[in-house]
Design a protein that fits this description.
Elements (H helix, E strand, L loop, with lengths): L19 H27 L7 H40 L26
């Protein structure tokens, strides 16, 4: 009887947000989680060829699928965090850039440039 137990290590970021290493730390975490998902996916593919009863194989398959789901949720969280860090970095690099560009030119809507239209 072969028993395979796989523990899913928790990937948590250190409180380094706001520093330049935070982005690379998040990227490294994303890479590790992606590798873990690939490893578990391969284990999932190898289950039919492994030893054990059908019930054991089914139980093992369910456990691996649960671990993959948890890692996928963690991956989504890390990707959101990376996107937020990139957005913060962009706003830090360009603090005076408004979210909407300044409107200039002839078609500038303002109090001075109004036209009354009667139908």
């Amino acid at each position: 009887m072969t028993t395979i137990s796989a523990a899913t290590p928790s990937v948590q970021g250190g409180g380094t947000s706001g520093t330049s290493s935070a982005g690379s730390d998040t990227a490294a975490q994303i890479s590790r989680v992606t590798q873990q998902i690939a490893k578990l996916t391969q284990q999932l593919k190898d289950i039919p060829n492994s030893e054990g009863t059908a019930e054991q194989k089914k139980k093992q398959q369910e456990q691996i699928q649960q671990q993959i789901q948890l890692l996928q949720a963690q991956l989504q969280q890390l990707m959101r965090k990376q996107a937020e860090e990139a957005e913060q970095k962009q706003t830090q690099n360009h603090p005076n850039t408004p979210t909407q560009g300044k409107i200039e030119g002839v078609n500038n809507p303002s109090v001075d440039h109004q036209v009354d239209i009667y139908i």
